[in-house]
Amino acid sequence: MLGAICGDVIGRPYEFEAPTTNYDFELFTDQSRFSDDTVMTAAVADAILNGRAFEVSLVEFGVRHIEGGYGKSFKAWLLDANRQPGTSFGNGSAMRASPVGWLSDSLADTIGLAWRSAMPSHGHPEGIKGAIAAAAAVRLALDGKPPEEVRNVIASLTGYDMHRSVEQIRANYPRFKVTCQDSVPEAIICAIEATSYEDAIRKAVSLGNDADTQAAIAGSIAEVYFGVPDGIAERALSTLTHDLREVCDQFVVRTAHLRASGR
User: Fold this and answer.
1) What is the pLDDT of residues 215-232, one digit of tens each?
2) Can you tell me the distance from the alpha carbon of 236 to that of 8, in angstroms, rounded to the nearest whole number?
3) Which entry of 90, 190, 199, 212 is 20 to 30 Å from 84 by CA?
4) What share of the chain is helix, strand, coil (3-state, %, to 5)?
5) Contact assessment for residue 190 and residue 166, using Cβ atoms and an 8 Å cutoff
6) CATH of 2-258, one of 3.40.30.10, 3.40.228.10, 3.40.190.10, 1.10.4080.10
7) Which helix (H) or strand (E) holds 137?
């Protein structure tokens, strides 16, 4: 979860108006702050930690932070008093899924919980697949699986083309795609090819697509392999509001046994 938040904060200045393909971009700027990726990640964590329905937490946190940068359709869903289950295949289902990997007991449990976390708003098969891929990559890393095994398992679970390099992706990547199928496998590849947490984030942001979401997904996986450097964590966490920090702190306490075991 911390890895996702830091990725979001670092990537946000490079979303929309200011994308970059420069690997050596400025890590933090005066525009570095959390966005909807962090808000929805906290909502998913809150739902699992406190036994709440995913839809209840997503709407509560989303409305509280309604100017977080949501897509037009998702924002309308949040504000609709008569909302129905959504059928989006946007990458919003994946950007919020990392707590599932940490707070589940097995890969099978992760898959089921990721499916449930997606369903309120992202019930399209591709939306569900994106959530499963992002959460499963975290779970596999926590289970000690090496990056190449993560690559293979995610490909088997989803049908994504995981056998590309970051440089192959970079050579022919779209200007701005926010669907799961056009951004989730790419973000996971950034993490499993990384040599450090910061390297994963720089790879994800400098693809030049949906920078903060890609960095959030990549960062959530890279956190397991490398940890998050203290300076990056402190800078990103300092941008959080009290309610988001409270969930983050609760999450850290609940997952302390995994961290103590070196995972």
Assistant:
1) 999 999 999 999 999 999
2) 9
3) 212
4) 65, 0, 35
5) yes
6) 1.10.4080.10
7) helix 125-142
